[in-house]
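Aim 2 progress update. The chain analyzed this quarter is reproduced below.
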Amino acid sequence: MSGISDYLAKELRIVIDRPMGSKHPDHGFIYPINYGYAPDTVGLDGEPIDAYVLGISKPVNQFSGKCIAVIHRLNNNDDKLVITKGGKQYDDEQIMRITNFQEKFFKSTILRG
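Predicted structure tokens:
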């Protein structure tokens, strides 16, 4: 997994390129949460590691928070970080429900520290 689990429990800055309420440019679904990437990281797909931001109820351009989990996709090489403010905790079921708008297309598991 190329060290993505190393980000667990770390504070990270996330650049939001798909703010809450925006539309996916290719697939047409609406983002119900803020979604972006961690600059200066590289995932297995060769791109910066993507991140779901939980617990914010308005669109933002950037966010700093704690990585509480990693969504490890078993049938895709694009794992996702799960970031919250102040390390607010969500259980695995909550994370999968909140991210289902996109994760329903993949088989995945939640990794924790």
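The mean pLDDT is 94. Helices lie at 92-98, 100-103. These observations will guide the mutagenesis experiments scheduled for the next reporting period.
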